[in-house]
Amino acid sequence: MSGPEKPKVIGEEWSDERVKSFLFLSPFDARTNPDHYVLIKAYEAMRAEDFERFLGFFVEAGRDVNARDENGETMLDHVARHRRMTAYAEALEAAGARKAAEVEA
Q: InterPro entries, alphabetically (predicted)?
């Protein structure tokens, strides 16, 4: 089995196919921003180095790295609250992500 339905296993190598499979996730309701939803799911499931690879595919696919959640926050806002996740924040910033206060509404 390969893809987002597979449980997270520490130390497991992720193929490009498995990383890219997160691009095809969809939220369960129409109110949820699909790009933000995909970013959250990838962040929750992937190690920092896999998340960084994912961001490359995400941006290449024309997805919005600054998509906002229902509270108006970007993914970088979310990750910035988790002090031990600096590698994720750095990967987001390298992909062009900004905090909501830095992005035009």
A: Ankyrin_rpt-contain_sf, PA4642-like
